[in-house]
Amino acid sequence: MTIKPLFRLNDEAGRLAALRRYEILDSAPETEFSDIVALVKSIFNTKYAAINLIDSERQWMKAAAGLEPLECGRGDAFCDHTIRGTSALAVEDATADSRFSDNPFVTGEASIRSYLGVPLTSPDGYNIGAICVFDTGLRKFSDADKTVLENFAKVVMSQFELRLIARQDSLTGSLTRRAFVERMDRLSGREDPVSLLMIDLDRFKLVNDTFGHPVGDIVLKSVATTIQSSLRKSDALGRLGGEEFAVLLPGADATGALAFADRLRNEIATRKLDEIAGANVTLSIGIADHRAGESRDLWLARADHALYAAKTTGRNRCVVAE
Predict the structure, then answer these.
(1) Which residue of the set 92, 150, 243, 275 is catalytic?
(2) Under CATH, which number does the domain 177-320 receive?
(3) Per-domain residue ranges for the chain?
(4) Nearest partner of 249 among 263, 235, 261, judged by Cα
(5) Domain 12-166 -> CATH class
(6) pLDDT tens digits, 120-150
(7) How much is the pTM?
(8) Distance in angstroms (rounded) separating the CA atoms of residues 149 and 169
(9) Is 243 among the residues known to form the active site?
(10) How many helices (H) and strands (E) are present in the chain, helices listed first?
């Protein structure tokens, strides 16, 4: 018996959340996706091929063959029509199709005439984008063409899933160190304020030595869950190693970040954990807001120095970097 896939076409908020979960919008080029579109372009013998992601207002190319990756308004994107359906969208002549005849990519210099796109569907049924081929010449796409591109769509989604797994800490679900510093790089290029928190569980070695590493893992997961539940969608939590976590707070200066950190520190400190005989754990937190022109390494170092100051002046406290 064939199980039909689940599609959620009428939940835009859920679709955008699914897209954000992959942490791939505005990411750097990656060979695996560039190789896929190059192969697709060759197989279909078209002028262009692309992997496109659709957010609330724009289409962004993760990879493209035959052109440099670009972005455009969502309303001008052929793939925006593709993600509204559950199967391949084929356009033989865009000039004769009322959906596209006045599209600037049809009437303008690009002169797109034919298009075939297949939705990129997440395991929970959200179409987050499309893989497509398009050309300046007329083209009739067969059912076999559609099947081939559908199979490539599955390959792309498998790569997205593998990429997501590699970016998530297996114990806590937080970002890995590599994924976290990539987020730092993206945020540091903006003009808006952004602050970094370096967080360490005080005397965590004693928890492991007294209660064992399985209990230590439970404590780490509990702390990570508490931190994550305190964050906004735009914030990020990473596990940098062992009992050390880090948080990014876009839009927060040092004063705002300190207020958040102190609330978090107090919440953790007042919670009794049954796993460690009703005792509690405490956090030391170092805070550094990003300064214009500051490198990622220097930013990390300033927050780390503030964390060191918090730990060496009594623990269970927050310190702002100089």
Answers:
(1) 243
(2) 3.30.70.270
(3) 12-166, 177-320
(4) 235
(5) alpha beta
(6) 999 999 999 999 999 999 999 999 999 999 9
(7) 0.73
(8) 32
(9) yes
(10) 10, 11
